[in-house]
Design brief:
This protein is of the alpha+beta class. 51% of the residues lie in helices and 18% in strands. The chain has nine helices and nine strands. α1 packs antiparallel against α3, α2 (23-43) packs antiparallel against α3 (48-91) and α8 runs antiparallel to α9. The radius of gyration is 33 Å and the shape is flat.
Length: 303
């Protein structure tokens, strides 16, 4: 996966613009305070032995504050550039198809990522980090699941809503208002303006989405490891690997129905369409020649 210099510069545009925005006040403030010093010295009836050091100290404080802000921003931008360069270097060795699935929810990578499939494996790779999320990027690597090692997948967790109510209640007697009211209109004014204020009641709906897609994966040591992925990933899996859904794997009747349905689909004249689609996948780089030949042979054997 190649990125041009223009791609990288466009991502760095915002942080560099923010950093450059600090340069102007960093140099303007010392000049401004010097001008103020000269004007005050020549026009104001002020003892400059006292005012001069005060103006100088104030100018120095403001200048140092902007220098510190600029240095902090410069370090952040440099960190972002280093992360971005590490990502670009890692991506050079990764062959990502032209139209992979894009999962915008963060994952174990810490940022949104690409997903693409071949007949033998599922591949995942993080999307290019942005200035807003680069600190969340945990690692830049190609994640792979061998389909033959997937025991099943399923969804876990719930989505629920919380209605949070705030406000209401009283702020207590308005003493300042009572004093002003008495001065304006006597006792009556004090009573009216001294009344407590009631805070408005506000209602906010908060969504808690704890749903995840879980892949039960057989490791080389025979252990089953459960990997948590975004909830939306379930639809992607079910669209391409319906027979590995836990509902089907653990339910013999559903498994038989799914197998029967697949056999019915493959026994029709759709084989020709499937062969064409398989060829398109190879030509677009989604699968290699070996995968293409294996799947082609399976289809031809069912004719």
């Amino acid at each position: 996966m190649e990125f041009s210099k223009k791609d990288i510069e466009s991502v760095l545009l915002k942080p560099k613009r923010e950093m450059n925005g600090l340069k102007v006040p960093m140099f303007v403030f010392p000049v401004s305070f010097a001008v103020i010093f000269v004007i005050v010295q020549n026009t104001a009836d002020i003892d400059m032995r006292v005012a001069g050091p005060i103006i100088g100290i104030m100018g120095g404080i403001f200048t140092l504050a902007f220098i510190s802000a600029y240095s902090t921003k410069y370090k952040i931008v440099r960190d972002f550039e280093n992360v971005l360069q590490a990502y670009v270097n890692a991506a050079k060795s990764i062959s990502i198809p032209d139209k992979p699935y894009e999962i915008d929810e963060n994952s174990s990578f810490g940022v949104p990522y690409y997903v693409w499939f071949s007949p033998t494996k599922i591949s995942l790779f993080p999307k290019m980090p942005t200035y807003e999320n680069y600190k969340n990027l945990k690692e830049v690597r190609l994640g792979e699941f061998q389909i033959s090692k997937i025991k099943y997948y399923y969804t876990s967790g719930d989505k629920y809503y919380e209605n949070k109510i705030s406000g209401g209640g009283s702020t207590g007697p308005n003493v300042a208002g009572a004093i002003i009211g008495e001065q304006i209109a006597g006792i009556g004014g004090a009573i009216v303006m001294g009344q407590s204020k009631t805070n408005p009641i506000e209602s906010k709906l908060i969504v808690h989405d704890e749903r995840r897609t879980v892949i039960a994966y057989r490791e080389d040591q025979g252990m089953i490891t459960k990997y948590l992925l975004p909830f939306d990933f379930y639809e992607v899996l079910y669209d391409l690997l319906p027979d590995l859904s836990r509902d089907i794997v653990e339910n013999p009747l559903k498994k038989a129905q799914a197998s029967s349905k697949q056999e019915q689909e493959i026994s029709t004249d759709q084989i020709e369409a499937k062969l064409k689609k398989l060829l398109d996948l190879r030509n677009s780089g989604l699968i290699d020649d070996q995968d293409y030949q294996e799947q082609k042979s399976k289809l031809l054997n069912k004719m």
